[in-house]
Specification:
This protein has about 400 residues and is of the alpha+beta class. Helix content is about 20%, strand content about 30%.
Length: about 400
């Protein structure tokens, strides 16, 4: 019998919709072959790719998703569409289980590939979810300069309710913001003297923000930092953090900060912290491998290679120690080196500043800067500052 499908744009009386869906590309469809049909809907949660649009320099990609359903699943289909080409693949699954861990290797054609995952249960409830994958080094290189955007979220605090005030964080932040905007084309947001509630609210906003696959997000903190020996945890001190707070509930813990940054739907995130005890962002104070230096590849080829790999990297002004705020009217030692690095790129050194090159500017600081990775970082990835022509 031929199936008739109705696409739902609003609630319908005999359909119960109580599911949460990952991403923004889910389409709900119900098959009304039987009068009075009622059904719950399957739930699709992507684990790879996590974002709706991504890129790959290889033609074989791994798709992973967790599928849950209150009733038995009848069918799981993967459809791949590339220009005039289209093919379907039926996925194998346990028809007696309410949980399916789907993992498929798909060979894709060069160019834009739209992948549609369709799940249907035995009562005709259908959910579709899509992912888009751009394949091919040449295709990615052509798309990088045209589509990518860089963002900077900067927190700077020098006025505190319970802690000693500082003299340079906000001034440093304004200089860094200006260079990022004017020289590198970043879209910036600078938050001054934020409370804990304002910091966490802003991080939440960025957790809900949609990014393109080659976009980058730079997050910068300048101000006080603290490490609690009893709790074994490092913290960012916000403007309203209490000086006597045994539970540290008025502080932003590094553990929470790692979680918030890991969950942001941007593939390329770089955190820099000019705060005391910033090195304790890494719970084991482990040094990460440096990125690789530029080779003879063109700028577009280098960006295409690096921006297809997930980035979660950090750089801090010190280790498990206090660091200098610097003299009034001057930059902190860390900020001064950071500003120098940003300013010097674009002349004889080329237009791309890599993390490997950035790290070399901090080698002679009296403090012990730390760099590394966190979360789902790919060791071969990089965060790049690209000077505008």
């Amino acid at each position: 019998m031929k199936k008739t499908f109705i696409i739902l744009f609003c609630g319908i009386a005999n359909l119960c919709i109580g599911q949460a869906f990952s991403g923004r590309s889910n389409l709900i469809v119900v098959d009304y072959r039987q009068p009075g049909t009622t059904t719950s809907l399957p739930e699709i949660a992507w684990t790879a790719p996590q974002v709706e649009s991504t890129m790959s320099t290889t033609d074989v990609v791994v798709l992973e998703a967790v599928i849950r359903s209150e009733m038995l699943i009848k069918d799981i289909t993967l459809e791949v569409i590339n220009a005039g080409n289209r093919y379907e693949k039926k996925a194998e699954f346990d028809s007696n289980s309410s949980l399916c861990l789907l993992k498929q290797n798909l060979k894709l054609l060069p160019g834009e590939n739209r992948i549609v995952l369709t799940v249907e249960n035995v009562n005709g409830g259908v959910v579709k979810s899509t992912r888009s994958v751009l394949v091919g080094k040449n295709e990615i290189a052509l798309a990088v300069d045209a589509n990518r955007k860089d963002y900077a979220l900067i927190f700077a605090t020098d006025k505190y309710d319970s802690w000693e005030n500082l003299v340079n964080p906000i001034a440093d932040a304004h200089v860094i913001e200006s260079i990022l905007k004017e020289k590198y084309g970043f879209k910036t947001e600078l938050i001054e003297n934020a409370t804990l509630e304002e910091v966490t609210a802003k991080l939440y906003d960025y957790n809900t923000k949609k990014f393109n696959p080659q976009d980058q997000l730079f997050v910068f903190f300048a101000g006080h930092g603290y490490y609690d020996e009893v709790l074994g945890e490092g913290y960012v001190v916000t403007s309203n953090s209490l000086s006597y707070d045994k539970g540290k509930s008025s502080y932003l813990s590094h553990n929470l900060l790692r979680q918030r940054l890991e969950n942001i739907k941007c593939d390329h995130v770089f955190l820099a912290m000019d705060v005391c005890f910033g090195g304790t962002f890494d719970p084991v104070l482990a040094r990460a491998r440096g990125g690789d230096a530029l080779d003879e590849a063109t700028d577009s080829q280098y960006l295409a290679r690096k921006l297809t790999k997930r980035t979660r990297k950090y750089l801090t002004s010190g280790s498990k120690e206090y660091v200098s705020d610097g003299a009034q009217g001057k930059h902190s030692p860390f900020a001064a080196r950071f500003i120098q690095a940003l300013r010097e790129v674009g002349g004889g050194t080329g237009r791309i500043l890599t993390l490997y090159e950035l790290n070399t500017y901090f080698q002679k600081l009296k403090s012990e800067p730390r760099s590394g990775s966190f979360g789902s970082d790919n060791p071969a990835s990089d965060f790049v500052f690209v000077a505008q022509n």
